[in-house]
Specification:
heterodimer; B: about 300 residues; mainly alpha; MetI-like fold; two-stranded antiparallel ribbon; 14 helices
């Protein structure tokens, strides 16, 4: 069996393909598949909806009435989060820390990846350094969290956004190098050479020719890094201790620790905690799947 | 293929760019330096420091004396450590098995370009984007014995609400279900990408031969998809071995030690009991296992033909 196929399952190519032709009178297509969709969608969405629903009820309705959808529609739980508790600053911290660390990682990482993809290095490092960097990411975070804590203490960056930014930049840069290296390798060297012959410096050729061609890779890498960084919990938990530096996941988790039965506050905190990253995902949805699957190698 | 990457033959083309000017001999090292420094300082140094920590005896966070490898041998005789390892392995095995089967089913369900399938795929992957801490919150709201969705439904049906997080077996099952909810989408995405790159001819041939859907699946889809399944299972297992955030919010390891995964036990040994050396030794052993698994998985991926 050769693999010189003209069509591939699931991609739209011109011409009739077997999977496009509906099997006539197929009960599976008319009932089975739609039913499968409904069950799968319900499984994915109902837990989320239950959290949203709980957050919109009064505490009285939550604890006494046991309703499925809110009858006493209220935003009080959200109001409390932002007035009495520090969710505004958690949100700001999360955005600042995520944006800064992903930016630093992308700038440093693309340059490093370019060096690895285009040069011969000492000891053949261009062949293994991306892999070595990636392996540092595979070590369970819990193993390094305490030494990192002590290090942050020594440099006085405990409980600062700066400390988190440095740590997350290191995490992200390893992923950026690993992903971007392969993108750069797929871009023919001849394109840069032509630009350099025409008088571009290497740097200009990199900026004008290589980076635009690698843009899809950059986008996917950035999406993956942003999601992972925003969602990170363990290091933020250990390295920060007050709302001046705590991020959204830490804020939500510590709130849960303090209140035990205030279900309204808990559910509102969950919604507010997840909303930024879900909104971001909706914004970039065209590139999302690519970012998520490429990032499957963490 | 989604999770692989190309490793081109070492560069005939690349060589031509090299060594033309003096700057080019130092440039790559200048470009690499900040990245390498950052990773060495923030990730590698702490690992080495962790090794040093693991050979000391600490009390209340202070290093009292050197104990060599004793922490490691102690851990191997510590029932709590061994139990948390067993709990972790059970958790990973059961959750990943379910996620693989469900993920494959979802991928087969969604591979055909029928109407709305894009929107459906987009919705199905929501759980893996939700912040893990929030996933913990979501499932506390599902399982709460008084106000949870499970309890509410049970009451509506006239049954007594189950105590999910209060009973060891139910809590463990509840944690598995949480993981299945959150990470089946990842399995789904990887396997969907795998299905989409399968060649069409075998399926056409099978159809001509009049093979049924099940036979086609067993004879063609499954064997051709095997490498992808293997990769997906390894990736997911590596990640699941160090699950922390969700347990921290959902149960903190309880009731008793029913959901005390190794990461939770290690965290508590570190921060609650401040036995730094002992915790470091335990976690280093776990890290070695994870690294070995990851190395095997990555080697597997690199060997695969495109």
């Amino acid at each position: 069996m050769t693999t010189t196929s003209t069509g591939r399952i699931g991609k739209s190519l011109p011409g009739p393909r077997p999977e496009d032709v509906p099997e006539p009178s197929s009960r599976w297509e008319r009932f089975g598949r739609p039913a499968g969709f409904v069950v799968a969608l319900a499984f994915a969405v109902v837990p989320l909806l239950w959290m949203v629903s709980t957050s919109l009820k009064t505490n009285r309705e939550i604890t006494q009435d046991g309703t499925l959808v809110p009858h006493s529609f209220t935003l009080a739980n959200y109001h409390n989060l932002f007035s009495g508790r520090e969710f505004g600053s958690y949100l700001t911290n999360s955005i600042v820390v995520t944006a800064a660390s992903v930016l630093v990682a992308l700038v440093l990482g693309t340059h490093a990846a370019y060096a690895v993809a285009r040069f011969r290095l000492w000891a053949g490092a261009e062949r293994w350094i991306g892999f070595a960097l990636l392996m540092t990411r595979i070590v369970p975070p819990i193993v390094v969290v305490v030494p990192v804590f002590l290090l942050a203490q020594r440099f006085g960056v405990l409980n600062t956004k700066l400390g988190l930014i440095v740590v997350y930049s290191a995490f992200n840069v390893a992923v950026v190098v690993w992903m971007m290296e392969s993108f750069f390798r797929e871009i023919p060297v001849e394109l840069e050479e032509a630009a350099m012959v025409d008088g571009d410096t290497r740097f200009a050729a990199f900026r004008r020719i290589v980076l635009p061609l690698a843009a899809p890779g950059l986008v996917a890498t950035a999406i993956f890094a942003i999601i992972v960084t925003y969602n990170e919990f363990l290091f933020a938990l250990v390295l920060t201790s007050t709302p001046s530096a705590e991020t959204m996941p830490v804020g939500a988790a510590t709130l849960i620790g303090r209140i035990n039965i205030d279900w309204g506050a808990m559910s509102a905190a969950g919604v507010v905690g997840a909303l930024p990253i879900l909104l971001f995902s909706a914004l970039v949805q065209k590139h999302l799947v690519r970012g998520l699957t490429m990032g499957a190698v963490k | 293929m989604a999770v692989t990457r190309t490793v081109p033959a070492p560069g005939r083309t690349r060589r031509r760019l090299l060594g033309e000017s003096g700057l080019d001999t130092v440039l790559p090292y200048l470009l690499l330096a900040p990245t390498v420094f950052l990773v060495l300082a923030v990730l590698v140094y702490p690992m080495v420091d962790g090794l040093r920590t693991s050979t000391g005896f600490y009390r209340f966070g202070r290093r009292l004396r050197e104990v060599g490898w004793d922490n490691y041998t102690d851990a191997l005789h510590d029932p709590a450590f061994l139990e948390s390892i067993r709990t972790t392995l059970e958790f990973v095995a059961i959750a990943v098995a379910i996620e693989t089967v469900l993920g494959l089913a979802l991928a087969l369900l969604c591979v055909r370009e029928v109407r709305f399938v894009r929107a459906i795929r987009g919705t199905l992957i929501l759980p893996m984007i939700v912040t893990p801490v929030v996933v913990g919150i979501i499932f506390r709201l599902m399982y709460a014995s008084d106000v949870g969705l499970v309890a509410t439904i049970a009451r509506t049906l006239g049954m007594s609400p189950p105590q999910i997080l209060g009973q060891p077996h139910a809590a463990f099952g509840g944690l598995v279900l949480l993981d299945v909810w959150e990470w089946t989408p990842l399995m789904f995405l990887i396997l969907l990408a795998g299905l989409q790159t399968l060649p069409v001819e075998p399926f056409e041939a099978a159809k001509v031969d009049g093979a049924g859907a099940w036979r086609t699946f067993v004879d063609h889809t499954l064997p051709m998809l095997r490498p992808t399944i293997l990769v997906a299972v390894s990736l997911r297992s590596i990640d699941a071995l160090t699950t922390f955030d969700q347990v921290y919010v959902l149960t903190r390891g309880g009731p008793g030690t029913a959901t005390q995964l190794i990461s939770i036990y290690g965290y508590q040994t570190f921060f609650q009991f401040q036995q730094f050396g002992y915790a470091a030794a335990m976690l280093i052993m776990v890290a070695l296992v994870v690294i070995a698994l990851a190395g095997a998985a990555l080697a597997l991926m690199r060997r695969r033909p495109r």
